[in-house]
Request: fold
Amino acid sequence: MSECRVGTKGRVTDMQMKASYRNRVLDLGLTPGTEIEVVRKALLGDPIVIRFRGYQMGFRRSDVKGIQIETGN
Reply:
């Protein structure tokens, strides 16, 4: 997901990250099968703002590298 462009929409298919961070993200509602949209990226690509389940949240690029998505393209 860290390489997606602004406006990219997709569905989370896999999450490979440290267990402690994965649990935190799962608690926020970002689970496999969740539809997401990349809303904004800073100039250097960090942070990345994504929309899911009706709200927006910013993530560090390094934190979302392990989140795999399937795009509709």
Observations:
- Helices lie at 19-27, 61-64.
- The chain has two helices and five strands.
